[in-house]
Write the structure tokens for this entry.
Amino acid sequence: MKQIILGTAGHIDHGKTSLIKALTGTDTDRLKEEKLRGITIELGFAALDLPSGQHVGIVDVPGHEKFIKNMVAGATGIDIVVMVIAADEGVMPQTREHMEICTLLGIRHGFIALTKIDMVDEEWLELAQEDIMEFAEGTFLEGAPVVPVSSVSGQGLPEFIKVLDEIAAAVPDRPSTGLFRLPADRVFSMKGFGTVITGTLVSGNVSVGETIMIYPLMITSKVRGIQVHNASVNEARAGMRTAINFQGLDKTAVNRGDVVSTPGALKPSYMLDVALHFLESNEKPLKSRTRVRFHAGTSEVLGNLVLLDRDELAPGEDTVAQLRLDEPVTGVRDDRYVVRSYSPVRTIGGGYIVNPIPHKHKRLRPEVIEGLRRMMSADPAEVLAYLIEAAGYEGVSFADLKLKTNLPDKHLTTLLQAQLSSRAVIQVDKETRLFIHQATYEKLKTEALGNLERYHQKNPLKAGMPKEELKSKFPRLSPKLFTLLLNQMLRDNEIAQAEETVRLAGHTVSLGIDQADVRHKLLDIYLKSDLQPPYFKEIAQNLEVTPVQARDVLSLLVDEGSLVKVKEDLYFHTRNLERLKERLVVFLNKEGEISTPQFKDMTGASRKYVIPLIEYFDTKNVTIRIGDIRKLRRG
């Protein structure tokens, strides 16, 4: 049996709460203040079994203009709305605002209850019905049934239930798959149970014993128990009015507007890209960066509404915009939202989320505007390709794509597999399932090759560019993508690699006559000086080239392996070091250990060379230091 949520809407004192009580026997005004003032302030909840056997959860919302934010919170997850209009007053300001809110939230099923018919005569009742027909024209309730009822006498209640049963049968089933999300509309403590969170489960399912996370606070807890319509169950599914109590969760840590979901599934964001409809009922245009109250799910957050393609928006117009919020929210593609003016407070517009985790956009950028419009109109495969390409070098993970597309895992995986097979997309990381677009990879490769070419031009005597220096040219690049890039360019013979440096495959070091002479002199000096070479700064003073030129030739000799750097400014000829290493290994194999004085005797060098040399062999894993002696490092 599918899950149906019925929500009330309408002006204050038009009989929403009385109607629910007459239908279900439940008084949804539970607060002392509500009893004293005779108005609904907070959300109320009830349940009703229909003749067909369908079970309906009911959400009663406040009608007073001061509590519209509570009304919006209650409208989250509603399948059917009953617009309640009193026969003695007809259509009133909050009737119209509630209709606008329901339209903006994407509610498409509903009907009208004409209440308090016992308070008017037949002629007045006819006038009220004409007023309602005119009000509903052009809305999603145009042509919907109008059911006259009296909560006092019970007149019309059977017809109300019959109409509700028929509409409930026409409401499509919610998808069985999807991301588990429950926006909290109530948080309270119960003795013996602990903290309880209630809400309408908008998608997915949850079971007793599962670990969950409260967003945006990122607090984890375990589901201790679940109730649906006051009955304990092991699992709750999308569309159910659900109460969950949690193990070890502090009530003060959770607020209305927080979202219960799977750990790591959602991503809090201070920005949202949205499709915006500015209501025709607005008197003035909307200027960019207007301060607004943003309502989505059960949350209300202040922020600024930035128009991306214009400076102001006329009443009745649609556009793309970016919401920049004071507090983070967790959304998913296609989530509906409402915006209300900061002061005086009234509903001015709304729409749906296009991208729940965007970057900050600059205004009036054609590529940004066109990209968002593509996301709004393209099919899922095109949207997916666009999202991966727009992510650039950073790439985009499977988890983020779920939020940006709102596709079930299986459908998203199928689309990704098709793009991987056609090589339009590359998977960078199997563990996090990170993807980049092929066009992004080609651009990255072109830039990497360009960086290498510029490096060779600037440093003609260096055999290659340090890998870390090349990586630093792409600060947002993940290590795995950088490794993938290098490996692919190596396989394609576009680059060559030697230890920690890379070079273009065709790059060779060619020395000028002066440089070749310096190379010969340096090798001769270091070879003849054996294990007591001069420091390089001393050698450079006697060379007939600039210090920079001398340093370039020195780097070349180190890169090609002819010289070895042992410490800053101290270099040895590789042949001399290898001979010393052979003698050291023979000695250690025979004697088992060597002291620093013994090593000094072996080298015949002064102490300023002995210490750097023995420490060099430590770093190369030839020896291991134990106290004041060295031993041969085994393995």
About this structure: Residues 75 and 102 are 7 Å apart (CA to CA). Residues 181-261 form a domain with the Elongation Factor Tu (Ef-tu); domain 3 fold (CATH 2.40.30.10).
